[in-house]
Automatic annotation (TrEMBL):
<protein>
    <submittedName>
        <fullName>Uncharacterized protein</fullName>
    </submittedName>
</protein>
<dbReference type="Pfam" id="PF20074">
    <property type="entry name" value="DUF6470"/>
</dbReference>
<dbReference type="InterPro" id="IPR045527">
    <property type="entry name" value="DUF6470"/>
</dbReference>
Length: 193
């Protein structure tokens, strides 16, 4: 007689997926823009004007208008002096009956020519010096718009946080169940007494 016991263990499969937590952050941003300052500068060069005409005019280099004016004044002066001389001669001639040597005096005065000498080589007038220009104009452009300080404008972009959470999983399954197999086998030899 025989007794055989055969067992098969149970088999369980366990799969686990751990929990997962993902966090993505986007940083906050502050964007600043600044308008550069602008200054308009306008300059005019200084100029020095030197007029040497008075010096040249003394040397006789005159323009036509001044030359004509000077000659007219000389002619006017000559006419006045000649008229005065004729008047003086007439006054002397009026004294003829008073035993005076009138004609001799007149001839003596007319015979002698009086000259006035003036000698100059260097102009005595100074050149006229004047200046123009030499200006500097500064104009700053207004840089502030509404709400800006020193032309700086800003924009704030808030940060973001994103969460992804995956819960854990546990999968349990039975691959095979356990078993017990018990067999009874009688004797193979039959004995009889």
């Amino acid at each position: 007689m025989g007794l055989s016991i055969r067992t098969t263990p149970a088999e369980i499969e366990i799969k686990t997926i751990p929990a997962r937590f993902d966090a993505h952050t986007t940083y906050a941003k502050l964007e600043l823009k600044q308008k550069p300052p602008l200054i308009h500068i306008k300059t005019e060069q200084a100029m020095v004007l030197i007029d040497q005409y008075p010096c040249f005019a003394e040397e006789g280099l005159k323009n036509n208008a001044d030359f004509m004016k000077e000659q007219a004044q000389k002619g006017h002066k000559s006419i006045i002096s000649y008229t005065g001389k004729v008047a003086r001669n007439g006054d002397e001639m009026a004294k003829i009956g008073h035993k005076a040597n009138i004609m001799i005096n007149i001839a003596k005065n007319e015979a002698i020519t009086k000259h006035e000498f003036g000698l100059g080589y260097v102009p005595k007038s100074r050149p006229r010096i004047s200046s123009t220009g030499g200006t500097l104009e500064l104009k700053a452009e207004f840089i502030n718009n509404v709400g800006e300080i020193n032309g700086v404008s800003g924009r704030y972009i808030p940060g973001k946080i994103r969460h992804d959470y995956s819960p854990p999983k546990v999968d349990i399954r039975v691959v095979s169940y356990g078993s017990i197999d018990i067999k009874y086998s009688p004797n193979d030899v039959d004995t009889y007494i």
